[in-house]
Specification:
The chain is of the alpha+beta class. The protein has two helices and four strands; from the N terminus they run ααββββ.
Length: 93
């Protein structure tokens, strides 16, 4: 897997999610979504996004995203995420 390209895709994906307001993320808690992003005419990236309460309901929200190329890397995908407080601020940054 081209880890540099995968990291760029993952960073761009998380940047979009970071722009989502707390209220909308809260509505997505306990959800897992799977998306496919085209790499070229024959291959794609697999992106999985999970949204969950970080500690307690109505508190901080943790957003985790992972990316793989559908090959062996699917067993150990690249992963990144962030934590958003109810105020909309990012925790630990």
């Amino acid at each position: 897997m081209d880890t540099v390209a995968a990291q760029r895709v993952l960073d761009k994906w998380l940047a979009k999610l970071r722009a989502v307001p707390y209220r909308e993320l809260a509505a997505r808690v306990d959800s897992v979504t799977n998306d496919e992003i085209a790499r070229d005419s024959e291959r794609s990236w697999q992106l999985e996004t999970q949204v969950l309460w970080d500690d307690e309901p109505n508190g901080n929200i943790r957003v985790l995203a992972s990316i793989d190329d559908g090959g062996l890397r699917a067993f150990v995908p690249m992963t990144a995420g962030f934590v958003m407080a109810p105020s909309g601020e990012f925790v630990g940054e």
